[in-house]
Fold this protein.
Amino acid sequence: MVDLSVNIGSLKLKNPVLTASGTFGYGKEFADFMDLSRLGGYIIKGTTLEPREGNPYPRMAETPSGMLNAVGLQNKGVDYFIENIYPQIRCYDSQLMVNVSGACIEDYQEVCRRLAPLDGINAIEVNISCPNVKQGGMAFGTTCAGAAQVAKAVRQVWNKTLIVKLSPNVTDITEIAKAVEAEGADAVSLINTMLGMSIDVEKRKPYLSTITGGLSGPAVRPVAVRMVWQTAKAVKIPVIGLGGIMNGRDAMEFILAGATAVQIGTANFIDPQTPIKVVDYLNDYCTRHGFKSITELRGVI
């Protein structure tokens, strides 16, 4: 029997497979397609202090080996989530995590303060790396000082597992990771989308209303694997790897590079069963190669 369990801070996951924020709704939308209890956990879409309408359409575009998105953190705000969504999803036998974003440091802190009493939420993922909003978002994640300030503020009101989601749109991602580690982050997740752009040459205009957007999918995977490998060697806290994972083999790349857990994102739009298939692959891989625990494979590169 293979032991797939891993620890993220004080939080134990039954396996290292999570779903990425913004690609899995609130989880309940996928409950008819899959057994959510088979996941290590799922991270719900970005939640902000006030409701956000998101960016104007069009805000998604297909690219070679990937996609661009500029949704802009559309959501109804943390109070709506607490009153209307949380009661519907707290029952699933899988670790529920909330992705939190804000326009200023006080926003991040207040959202986490309101979520803290909810006993069904054992981890938050602080998004300091969204490239699709004009205020906050990626601005905090591109400097060590900005990232550290957010992590410190959130840590003051949140005593459960704290994950900070990092941007690849920086000179040295390891320095950002070390900065949030120093302020109490229990883990870092990387990478968020890469800033990209695509143009409709016949119409002579960008495909996205925002002109630029976040690139995800297989095109970014080699960059993501490299950054996970570098970061895992630079910090002592767990690294959660994401970026273009489409199958179990892709997920294993991240684990071998040093990831404690992985997130499935873009693949959820193509095949909602992908996260479950990844769990099965990891189990089969360990069995075929004679490993008793997935942790034996972490960071062997």
About this structure: The first helix runs from residue 78 to 89. Residues 6-54+72-195+217-297 form a domain with the TIM Barrel fold (CATH 3.20.20.70). The chain has nine helices and 16 strands.
